[in-house]
User: Fold this.
Amino acid sequence: MKQYNVIVANGILPRTRKMINLIEDAEHVIVCDGAVNNYFSYTKRLPDYVIGDGDSLDKDLVNQWHIPFIKVEDQETNDLTKAVFSGKEHGWDNFLIVGATGGRDDHAIANIFLLGYYVKIGVNVRMICPKGEFIPVAGHFDERVGSGRVVSIFPVDHSPVTATGLVYPVINRTFNELWEGTLNKTKEDRLVIDSEGRFLVFLGKRPAASALESR
Assistant:
């Protein structure tokens, strides 16, 4: 995997070796303020800094580990967005977001659909979830993802979408509702999706890897 940076949000992280490795092998790690409360139960790697408005921060823990804390009181953005903006200002790119789901359902939905905004402002980001990953795309997606993977496509701009490599092909289809592009599956190794607008791709875990990654 090429160099990447991890943002740890205040949801639930699966306690797997893969998740721990993602954090420990990252070039930089940013932790949202509430997430630091459980962060060290997963890893002893010190994050570059903690960021947020401080409303759910364990200050004693931050002081104990001598972790820099960046306080941003802007209430128009959540802590995840504060972390993305901050990382971008540092000149970092290629972010993996973890821990963004599994808590409050409304927070999870908001975090997922913020991905469309992040790609709009030029941030390369993916969200790693317990059952797969969300990838925001502007225009063109072309990757070897493996056959037999669950795929759902969520429109952001409601532009026509064409996708090949799926069990149920999508040809110049406009999804008017968010559910209409869900519950598909790859039948080939390569998945290609094109649209004039933005969309989110959900890829389920690789079937052969799921059992190992859950350990």
